[in-house]
Fold:
Amino acid sequence: MLTLFLIVFIDLVGFGIVIPLLPFYGEFFQAGPMLVTLMMASYSLGQFIAAPLWGRLSDRIGRRPVLIVSLFGAVISYICLGFATTLWMLFLVRIFGGLMAGNIATAFAYIADITTPENRAKGMGVVGAAFGLGFIAGPVIGGVLAGSDPLNADYQTPAFVAAGLSALALIMTIVRLKESLSPELRAQLAAKPKQSRITQCKEAVSRPGIGLLVMISFLATFVFAG
Structure:
């Protein structure tokens, strides 16, 4: 669990380095408030499209391969962000980053695999703590790397540092992290009847308490993002 904690923490530090700088990066390319907002939302759009696919794929091939691929995608997206020279490149990079963002959901699935029902909440809390600590450290590092002058801010260095941190998390995943989903469980999950995404959502929210929890999470995220 410590290895997964460090992987999530390091990756989220890199993510946190870039996020606060993106609005200024957009303004650097003469983007207005609406375009900056759309650029920020483009990542979430890609994530919305790809996250269920990553989850289904991790059930079939295991958590570790999905973590490796998604972290590799994060490295590529940060490198491309550092080399972006136009606004449309920023949009493409952010959409690509969102499409490759399967690491956090897969990390939670990994915890569910390796914990018992009695200590699962503790395991989820550990990953959540890594998430929060990464978001605390990342923006501070990003601000220091970008500099104190908004008119002459350095946007490349934070992006490349974020790429380096994601690369470190990728190496740790390859070297230290073992697969959590056994071949037997993968076979069982693969044998289940396939359902549409809408049907899966209906079944999930129909369970006692889940629908309310989903709504609360949506509203909390909506307010936070706004």
Observations:
- The radius of gyration is 18 Å.
- DSSP finds eleven helices and no strands in the chain.
- Residues 33-61 form the longest helix (29 residues).
- The chain has a mean pLDDT of 87.
